[in-house]
Amino acid sequence: MTTESVESTATSYTRLFALPGARAFTLGNLIARFPQGMFSISAVIMISGSRGSYALAGAVTATGLVANALVGPWTARLVDRHGQARVAVPATVISACGSLALLLCVHFGAPNWTLFAAYLASATTPNTGGMSRARWAHLLKETPDALHTANSFEQAADELCYMLGPVVAAFLCGSLFPEAGTLVSAVLMVTGVLIFAAQRATEPPPHARTKATKTPLRARGMPPLLLAFLATGAIFGSLEVVTVAFADAQGHKVWAGGILALQAAGSCAAGLIYGAWRPAGPAARRHPLCVAAMAALMTLPLLAAWLTGSLYVLGGALLVAGMATAPTMVTGMTLVQQRTPEGQLNEGMTLAVTGILTGIACGSATGGAAVEHWGPTAAYTVPVTAAACALLLALYAYVRSAR
Q: What's the whole-model pTM score?
């Protein structure tokens, strides 16, 4: 980047956080969002260390993921109807109690079924990223350029949390005690949500539902867009499993987290730069172009694994491939904001997150099966195929919206 572009990027974000209340609710949201990258790996380390079963640990965390995907839109609907503070705080407390119950069940050797029952309470975890985006949309509804910058920052924050969260969780569980990651993540989540909810001046007003209110699922252009999010989630889920298997096959499984973090790092950097750039044309036209770039770059990990078999080259390929992720997600979330009916923004964005989570689950299962049958190198065709599906769905959504 040139000196001028760096200064332009800094200026864009300085103006964004000069808005009254923006820094306060962003700080609270970042604290609340950071544990999202910690919960799963903390649970896996805690359960597998105590029960000696990765299968059990994976099943428990998958149950929580699926439950959150199902309950999340209903929680978001309540947020839209009654306000962020009134719903998010009790929902977060319930979720934190579920995490603490899981911790106690593991620590005191409770039967395996109690782990599933306890972790089901985590389904009430509110979509803090969606609530933050809803605040930006409320504050910046008259300034689309500034909203684009805000959405880009939120995507970069997501990538940062998912990049650093597992590292912090693994460090806490390894250096303190196995339950430390789960305990700290629950405390951070509650603390962050309390700080976030206390910023009432920037909170969007609640919107009461009527008989005429329709779900965002029925909004024009939303179904194919949400399916594109699902396919995008399948990229993430399959890429994670296949990369871990590839590193394990090389005898360096411990490096898998760091290699995957390179993809998140590339996406985080690209998101911040993309936020300072003023893209031309409507988001509906930009979205398939971004997905096309993501699909093209997603072939790089496959080529790196197939042609070189080197973890170092694979890491570089993932870094470059990740640079298309943030622009794709930012543009997709912008479309969700545009197409979601007024007063239902939290629900609309949570549906997008539900699509991603469902895709991650499907991608993980498909990627794991591909590794078992084809080997880790050939299994990189799974994220490439998922990216191609996302492109087809994005093109279909664009054609439908243009009619």
A: 0.79
